[in-house]
C-alpha cells in the first residue's frame, strides 16, 4: 500500500475516476468503444467523457433494463458498449437482461456496477449491492472482475476492451487506498499474490484487499504467524492454480469481501478448496446475511468487523 | 416450396406433427407479416445472412420461433427438412430461436420485452454510422404488458430512430386468455402516438395491405413506426381453436394435430 509521506495515511484514489480516465483514453484510439448510463453521468464520473465524446455517451434515462438490451443491440453491430449504473441496479434491476441478452447471447458488452457493497453509506440498503457477485457468478459463462484500487481498475478497463465477450466490473463509490503502481500488470483470470507468508492465506477482493494487507501486517507484528494475501480481482473465472498453490501448507484460509458471505468470493474460494480436497479450515468474512442500515461507510465497516484491527483480532482468534 | 402464408402454415403444421407440440398460435398469426417482410420488403440474402446492408429482423415474441423458422427455410436459409426435426432428439431448432445455430436469426430471443430495446440498439448503431438499413421488430400484443417495451418506446422517439419499425401481432390473446380480460393494452394507437411513434394499422392477414404500409414506411424513413397488424391467433386452425387461448400451444398425436388444422391447399404456391 502507498502512504502519504507527511501523515502516514494511505493514499486514496477513486476507482470510478480512474476507470473513466482510462476509458477516455481508449475512446480516443478505439472508435468502437461507447459509454452508456441510466441518468448517472455525474454520479459515475462520466462528465469528461460526455464533454469529449458527446455522441458516444448514450444516456437512456432511468431505465437500466432498457440500457442493457440497447447495449446488446449495439454490440450486435460491433460496438463495445460500457454500460454504467450502480451495481445494485446493473445486477438486480437489469439481471435478466444481463443474463439473457449479454451472457447467453455472448454480446461484447462491459457492465460497470459502481457504488458497490455498502459504499453508498447513508443511502441505505436500497442502494447497497450485497449480492451482485453471487447473482452474476451463477450466470453461465459470466466473467466478474472486482479491482482493489484505482490503478487496478484502470488496468482492467484496458484488459476488458481487449477481451471479447461480456464482463461484469464492480467498482467502489469512494476513493480506496492505492495498492498498485500505475502500469502494474493485471490479467483477467489471474489473481495477484501481494504478500507471501505461509501460515495463513487471506483472499480478498475490492475494498477489502487493503484491509487484508493491513490486517496481515498487524498479525505478523503481534504474532509469529506469517500471512499470505491474494488480491483475487477476477472472481470468475477464479485462479485455481494460484489459490491452491498458496493454500498448500496453510492452517487457515480467510476470505474477506464487501458482499454477503453467501454466493460471493468466500463461496467461490470454498468451492475450489473443497473440490481440491485440501482439508484446510476456511472462514468467510463479509456481510453476514443481513441488510446493514444506512450509515457512514467507516461506521458500517467497523460494525461489521471489516476493518484491519477487528479483522486481525478475529483472524488471530482463529489461529489459537 | 416458395415463401407464402400457405406454405408457412404447412411447415408449422408438419413440424408440430413431428415434434408432438409447438406454439402454433403466434406462429400462424404472423405468417402474412413474415411473407411481406422476407418476400417483399426486407433487403436480405439467404446465401449471405451477415450481408452488411441487410435489414434486420428481431423476433421479440420468440415463442413464435416456429413461424420464423418456416419463413427462413422457405427463403433458403436452411433446408425445409430441418423443420421436421423441430423439437426432436435429432433437431437443433428450439421453441425459442437461437442465433448460435440458426442462419438468419439475428438474436436469441424468448423472454418477452427484450426485442424492442435490442432493436433500438441496432437502429441507434445504424443512425450513428449513417447506415440506411431498417430494423424490424415483431412484438406480441400481450408482450406490450412488459414495461421494457415502453422504456424502449420512449428512447426510440427521443433518439429519433427513423428506420425502426415495430410490428405488433395484434391477435388479442395472451398465454392464458383474452388480453382485455387480464390487463388491457388499449388504447393501443393512442399509446404509441403519445410515445412519439407514427402508427399504421393493417389487416394482418392481408399481405398486400401490410406490404403497402411497410413500403410506404421505407419510402418515408422518418420513424419510429409501429404497424398494428390485426390478426387471428392460430389463423389456419379449426374453428373453436383459432382465435382462442387453445391455439397458443397445441400438442398431441400427429393425427390430433392434423385435425386441429383447417385443410390447406395441396399445391405449394
Q: What is the compact description of this entry?
A:
Chain A has 320 residues and is an alpha/beta fold.
Folded structure, characterized:
The complex is a heterodimer of chains A (320) and B (269). Chain A has 320 residues and is an alpha/beta fold. Chain A has 12 helices and 14 strands. Chain A has helices at 15-29, 47-52, 64-76, 87-93, 95-104, 132-137, 150-162, 208-222, 240-247, 265-275, 297-303, 308-319, and strands spanning 12-13, 33-37, 57-59, 80-86, 110-114, 144-145, 167-170, 176-177, 192-195, 200-204, 227-231, 234-236, 252-260, 281-287. The relative contact order of chain A is 0.12. Chain B is of the alpha/beta class and 269 residues long. Chain B is 36% helix and 12% strand. Chain B contains 9 helices and 7 strands. Chain B has helices at 5-19, 24-29, 31-41, 65-75, 115-129, 147-158, 188-194, 207-220, 254-260, and strands at 21-22, 56-59, 135-140, 164-170, 198-203, 225-230, 250-251. In chain B, helix 1 packs across helix 3 (31-41), helix 1 runs antiparallel to helix 9 (254-260) and helix 3 (31-41) crosses helix 8. The longest helix of chain B has 15 residues, at 5-19. The N and C termini of chain B lie close together (7 Å). Chains A and B meet through helix 3 and helix 5 of A and helix 5 and helix 6 of B.
Q: What would you call the shape of chain A?
A: globular
> What's the quaternary structure here?
heterodimer
Structural category of chain A: alpha/beta
Number of beta-strand segments of chain A: 14
Q: Quick one: which chains have the greatest interface?
A: A-B, 24 and 27 residues
Q: Which ranges of chain A are low-confidence, i.e. pLDDT below 50, for 5 or more consecutive residues?
A: none
Q: Radius of gyration of chain B, Cα only, in angstroms?
A: 17 Å
| Strand and helix order of chain A | EHEHEHEHHEHEHEEEEHEEHEHEHH
Q: What is the string of helix and strand elements of chain B?
A: HEHHEHHEHEHEHEEH
The chain-level mean pLDDT of chain A equals: 97
Sheet of most strands of chain A: 7 strands, mixed
> Which structural class matches the secondary elements of chain B?
alpha/beta
Distance between the termini of chain A: 28 Å
Amino acid at each position: 500500500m502507498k502512504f502519504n509521506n507527511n501523515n502516514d495515511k494511505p493514499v486514496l484514489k477513486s476507482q470510478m475516476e480512474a476507470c473513466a480516465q482510462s476509458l477516455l483514453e481508449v475512446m480516443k484510439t478505439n472508435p468502437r468503444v461507447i459509454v452508456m448510463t441510466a441518468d448517472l453521468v455525474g454520479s459515475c464520473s462520466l462528465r469528461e467523457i460526455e464533454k469529449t465524446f458527446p455522441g458516444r455517451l448514450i444516456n437512456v434515462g432511468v431505465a437500466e433494463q432498457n440500457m442493457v438490451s440497447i447495449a446488446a443491440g449495439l454490440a450486435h453491430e460491433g460496438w463495445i458498449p460500457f454500460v454504467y449504473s450502480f451495481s445494485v441496479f446493473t445486477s438486480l434491476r437489469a439481471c435478466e437482461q444481463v443474463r439473457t441478452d449479454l451472457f447467453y447471447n455472448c454480446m461484447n458488452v462491459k457492465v460497470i456496477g459502481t457504488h458497490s457493497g455498502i459504499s453508498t453509506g447513508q443511502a441505505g440498503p436500497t442502494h447497497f449491492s450485497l449480492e451482485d457477485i453471487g447473482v452474476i457468478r451463477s450466470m453461465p459463462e459470466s466473467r466478474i472482475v472486482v479491482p482493489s484500487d484505482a490503478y487496478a481498475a484502470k488496468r482492467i478497463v484496458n484488459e476488458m476492451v481487449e477481451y471479447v465477450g461480456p464482463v461484469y466490473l464492480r467498482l467502489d463509490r469512494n476513493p480506496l487506498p492505492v495498492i498498485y503502481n500505475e502500469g502494474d500488470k493485471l490479467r483477467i483470470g489471474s489473481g495477484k499474490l501481494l504478500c507471501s507468508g505461509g501460515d495463513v492465506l487471506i483472499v480478498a477482493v475490492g475494498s477489502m484487499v487493503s484491509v487484508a494487507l493491513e490486517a496481515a501486517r498487524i498479525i505478523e507484528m503481534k504474532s509469529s504467524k506469517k500471512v499470505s494475501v491474494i488480491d483475487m480481482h477476477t472472481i470468475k473465472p477464479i485462479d485455481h492454480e494460484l489459490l491452491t498453490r498458496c493454500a498448500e501448507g496453510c492452517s487457515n484460509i480467510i476470505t474477506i469481501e464487501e458482499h454477503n458471505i453467501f454466493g460471493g468470493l468466500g463461496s467461490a474460494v470454498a468451492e475450489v478448496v473443497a473440490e481440491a480436497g485440501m482439508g484446510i479450515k476456511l472462514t468467510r468474512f463479509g456481510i453476514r446475511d443481513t441488510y446493514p442500515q444506512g450509515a457512514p461507510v467507516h461506521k458500517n465497516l467497523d460494525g461489521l468487523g471489516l476493518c484491519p484491527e477487528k479483522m486481525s483480532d478475529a483472524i488471530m482468534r482463529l489461529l489459537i | 416450396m416458395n415463401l407464402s402464408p400457405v406454405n408457412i402454415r404447412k411447415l408449422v403444421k408438419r413440424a408440430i406433427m413431428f415434434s408432438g407440440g409447438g406454439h402454433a398460435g403466434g406462429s400462424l398469426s404472423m405468417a402474412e407479416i413474415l411473407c411481406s417482410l422476407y418476400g417483399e420488403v426486407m433487403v436480405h440474402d439467404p446465401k449471405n445472412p451477415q450481408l452488411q446492408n441487410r435489414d434486420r429482423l428481431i423476433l421479440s415474441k420468440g415463442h413464435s420461433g416456429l413461424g420464423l423458422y418456416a419463413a427462413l427455410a422457405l427463403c433458403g436459409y436452411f433446408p425445409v427438412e430441418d423443420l421436421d426435426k423441430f423439437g426432436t432428439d435429432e433437431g437443433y431448432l428450439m421453441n425459442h430461436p437461437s442465433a448460435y445455430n440458426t442462419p438468419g436469426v439475428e438474436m436469441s430471443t424468448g423472454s418477452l420485452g427484450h426485442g424492442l430495446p435490442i432493436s433500438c440498439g441496432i437502429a441507434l448503431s445504424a443512425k450513428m454510422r449513417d447506415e440506411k438499413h431498417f430494423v424490424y421488430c415483431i412484438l406480441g400484443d400481450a408482450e406490450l404488458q412488459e414495461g421494457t417495451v415502453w422504456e424502449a418506446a420512449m428512447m426510440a422517439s427521443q433518439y429519433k430512430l427513423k428506420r425502426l419499425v415495430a410490428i405488433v401481432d395484434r391477435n388479442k390473446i395472451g398465454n392464458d386468455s383474452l388480453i382485455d380480460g387480464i390487463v388491457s393494452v388499449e388504447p393501443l394507437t393512442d399509446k404509441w402516438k403519445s410515445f412519439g411513434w407514427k402508427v399504421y394499422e393493417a389487416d394482418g392477414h392481408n399481405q398486400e395491405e401490410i406490404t403497402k404500409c411497410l413500403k410506404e414506411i421505407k419510402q418515408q424513413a422518418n420513424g419510429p413506426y409501429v404497424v398494428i397488424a390485426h390478426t387471428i391467433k392460430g389463423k389456419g386452425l379449426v374453428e373453436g381453436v383459432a382465435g382462442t387461448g387453445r391455439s397458443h400451444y397445441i400438442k398431441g398425436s400427429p393425427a390430433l394435430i392434423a385435425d386441429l388444422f383447417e385443410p390447406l391447399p395441396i399445391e405449394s404456391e
